[in-house]
């Protein structure tokens, strides 16, 4: 009997099991992906798009504070995310992991991301509570990490300043700069500022103000409980057009919520002066960035809405002196959401708003 069972087992092992369906390596579509402040690297070497955002435990199962990445081959189908950077235990920061950006520099990949700690109070001249907030740096040998913290996780900008959303800008002479938003909590009117960097991406000078949020004619102040009206600056991101014009994407609040806007440097450099152009996308959409798809198209990714945000993709046009929205790429993000004027005036004298 035992010999018969062994023989039957041997036969069953020799017969291949019924083919099981293979798991989809990229099962997610953009409407299924939690993300805020999206940043996409289009890696030509691997023909892979890497979408970096704050780690969301619901997506990764990982409770650590840090950065996760989705990957895609076609901008429509995405892998489940994984954590590529986690803030080490004992670091000064306790919250945040906002606005991760990944940039190549001197043969390495650098992650810029913003953290804060409400228990680490800063001096305040008024009634608003000020606390430590700033962009820190991490480094990796590959675009998809893992990333390790640089300089113990200390912010690049003076820790006495409440700053966020730092981005790397390399000027025409090859010099690196950190450009960031100086938080309205500390300034009342938020600013976009720049600080020169050394080759190791540490601060090499004093900050300079590029522009104030209230310089944009579309920007609207937000009334606070203390009676102040504040103006927000978020998400600076640069692009140099086909004619050499330097433009900056940035976000604030307009008449109908969060706005994806654009500014242009009249000098072609950080020195400006910066002129504010008409917003690219309104109605609670923003913190976007530009990248070049593998088929050559200029694309923009942003999040919409501000709360419970999802990623949205737009095909863009480089018009030489600016960039413009061509259309929302609904074949990729599966949502039609008009970006051209579509709201009828409430009165004959009220100007038409954009959607």
UniProtKB/TrEMBL annotation:
User: Which InterPro entries does this chain map to?
Assistant: GH43_arabinanases, Glyco_hydro_43, Glyco_hydro_beta-prop_sf
Q: In which pathway does it act?
A: Glycan metabolism; L-arabinan degradation
Q: Which UniProt keywords apply?
A: Glycosidase, Hydrolase, Signal
Which GO terms label this protein's molecular function in UniProt?
hydrolase activity
Q: Which CDD domains match?
A: GH43_Bt1873-like
Going by the entry's taxonomy, the superkingdom of the source organism is recorded as Bacteria
UniProt keyword rRNA-binding present: no
PANTHER family membership = ARABINAN ENDO-1,5-ALPHA-L-ARABINOSIDASE, ARABINAN ENDO-1,5-ALPHA-L-ARABINOSIDASE A-RELATED
Annotated protein name in UniProt: Glycoside hydrolase family 43 protein
């Amino acid at each position: 009997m035992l010999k018969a069972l062994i023989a039957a087992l041997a036969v069953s092992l020799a017969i291949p099991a019924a083919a099981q369906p293979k798991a989809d390596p990229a099962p997610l579509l953009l409407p299924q992906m939690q993300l805020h402040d999206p940043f996409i690297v289009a890696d030509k070497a691997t023909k892979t798009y890497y979408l970096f955002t704050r780690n969301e435990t619901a997506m990764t199962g990982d409770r650590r504070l840090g950065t996760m990445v989705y990957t895609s081959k076609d901008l429509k189908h995405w892998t489940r995310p994984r954590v590529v950077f986690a803030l080490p235990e004992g670091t000064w920061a306790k919250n945040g992991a906002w606005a991760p950006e990944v940039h190549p520099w001197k043969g390495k990949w650098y992650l810029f991301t913003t953290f804060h700690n409400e228990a680490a109070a800063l001096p305040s001249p008024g009634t608003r509570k000020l606390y430590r907030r700033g962009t820190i740096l991490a480094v990796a040998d590959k675009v998809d990490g893992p990333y390790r913290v640089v300089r113990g996780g200390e912010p690049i900008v003076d820790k006495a300043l409440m700053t966020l959303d730092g981005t790397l800008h390399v000027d025409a002479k090859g010099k690196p700069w950190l450009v960031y938003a100086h938080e309205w909590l500390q300034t009342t009117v938020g600013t976009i500022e720049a600080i020169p960097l050394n080759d190791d991406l540490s601060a090499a000078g004093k900050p300079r103000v590029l522009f104030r949020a209230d310089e944009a004619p579309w920007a609207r102040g937000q009334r606070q409980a203390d009676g102040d009206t504040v103006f927000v600056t978020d998400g600076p991101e640069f692009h140099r057009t086909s004619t050499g014009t330097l433009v900056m994407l940035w976000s604030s609040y307009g008449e109908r919520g969060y706005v994806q806007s654009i500014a242009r440097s009249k000098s072609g450099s950080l020195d400006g002066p910066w002129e504010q152009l008409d917003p690219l996308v309104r109605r609670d959409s923003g913190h976007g960035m530009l990248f070049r798809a593998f088929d050559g198209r200029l694309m923009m990714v942003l999040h919409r809405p501000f709360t419970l945000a999802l990623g949205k993709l737009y095909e863009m046009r480089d018009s030489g002196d600016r960039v413009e929205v061509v259309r929302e790429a609904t074949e990729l993000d599966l949502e039609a959401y008009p970006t051209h004027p579509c709201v009828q005036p409430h009165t004959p004298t009220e100007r038409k708003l954009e959607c």
